Amino acid sequence: MTRGTAPQADPEWFRRYYGDDYMDSVRQLLGGERSEREADFLLRVTGLRQGARVADLGCGEGRHALALAGKGLRVTAVDLSPSFLERGRAEALRRGLQVDWVLGDMRTPCPGPYDLVALLFETFGYFSDEENLGLLQAWRKELGPGGRLIIDVWNRERILADFVPQAEWTASSGLAVQEERRWDGETGRLFVRYRYRRREGPVREYDASFRLYGREEVAALLGQARFALDDVFGDLQGAPWRPDSPRLVALAAGNCGGLRGLSSLLETSSNPT
Ligand SMILES: C[S@@+](CC[C@H](N)C(=O)[O-])C[C@H]1O[C@@H](n2cnc3c(N)ncnc32)[C@H](O)[C@@H]1O
To answer: What is the mean pLDDT of the chain?
Structure first.
């Protein structure tokens, strides 16, 4: 099934797309209150306490990283964008918070062990199927005992049930946004051409390609990466998932805890301090 006509994107499209235009188009949507609420949900659903270690992959300007650090968690926040990280760092300084900001590609994991690895607000599905799976496998090895993974993505069932090939809207920053969307059922990817324009300025165009996993497919993918699916929600507040939910939020346990988890267990048992 193919709908719409937006063209294919460069496989590394996310390097160019996630910049100031993207951030200006969503910043108002993702204010501090929402981020705090989402961080509260993460703590509630995982039972994590102060001092627990979280890796926030594709952290953007660190809205979740900052909210979690403010609640006493030890956060490693990874992103490809130096300017997003710089803004996160400045905000952490302003609030007196400690976050470990890492400029890097999420396909290369940062050494754990972590109690939670989080991929929030459509930060999963950018790469080839093999690389998406590889990313999960690699980060699972960095989980400590009892460590978990949370993935928050668009709900594919809802997007396809009510497919919108074109959309236009204006962000509250005044940025005009046009989207042209094409769904490719063979690859399970949504291709989007974004056009951004500020007042009378030039139009800037970006192509993006998101691998959308349905509910059953996410469960299978997590199983392949040796995670055990704990729960599926329909948003980041804990509503039950339904085919028309806005989001698909999968919470999974890292099964055997991964190699690093195992080594940290051994370290703890030989050194009880
Ligand atoms: C959709 S935004 C989500 C930002 C943030 N998680 C939030 O909730 O607002 C995706 C983020 O992932 C980052 N990103 C994209 N590809 C990446 C990669 N390969 N490695 C690390 N970060 C990446 C982008 O720079 C962007 O900040």
So the answer is: 91
